[in-house]
Amino acid sequence: KLFFTDYGNAAKVERCDMDGMNRTWIVDSKIEQPTALALDLINKYVYWLDTYLESVEVVDYQGRRRQTITKGRQIRHLCGLAVFENYLYTINSDNFSILRINRYNGTDVQALARLDNAKEIRVYQKRTQAAGRSHACEGDPHGAPGGCSHLCLLSSSYKARTCRCRTGFILASDGRSCK
């Protein structure tokens, strides 16, 4: 799945399949300006930062069990969001400090370091990576991903895929090659 935020005409947090199909709103009320998003892949939670409402909130992948983690003026200056173990990590854009926030109750806020001009944050650790498994976009004997001549996008599951073409090409009737 692909998770994303939008604060155009109607602010929301959404998800869809990697090929863009099955687009679903998971948060569409009491939300104004969601500017950062982080996923807990193990427990299947979506965290987001709303700078207008000055809050950090969480829901499960279906948009249920919504909770406010923390709220207040300090949220207005945060950008970027990552989750790892018991904490959320974000950046204060006023002083470029990396903050660690307890993700269960919003307490235990601690400045860890300072990075000039930082706007985004990611945690890279082996435990945050999903276990590898075979999938529909693996290369075929000729090296074509999922048998697609240009792009292979996972669909509704890791066993299903959709072929797409680069700009200027159209998908042939076989659903795999581009012309």
UniProtKB/TrEMBL annotation:
SUPFAM superfamilies: YWTD domain. GO terms for molecular function: Wnt receptor activity; Wnt-protein binding. Pfam families: FXa_inhibition, Ldl_recept_b. InterPro entries: 6-blade_b-propeller_TolB-like, Cueball_EGF_LRP_Nidogen, LDLR_classB_rpt. LDL-receptor class B repeats lie at residues 1-43. One of its GO terms (cellular component) is plasma membrane. GO terms for biological process: canonical Wnt signaling pathway. It comes from the Eukaryota. PANTHER family: EGF-LIKE DOMAIN-CONTAINING PROTEIN (PTHR46513:SF33), VITELLOGENIN RECEPTOR-LIKE PROTEIN-RELATED-RELATED (PTHR46513). This is LRP1B protein. It comes from Picathartes gymnocephalus (White-necked rockfowl). The gene is Lrp1b_2.
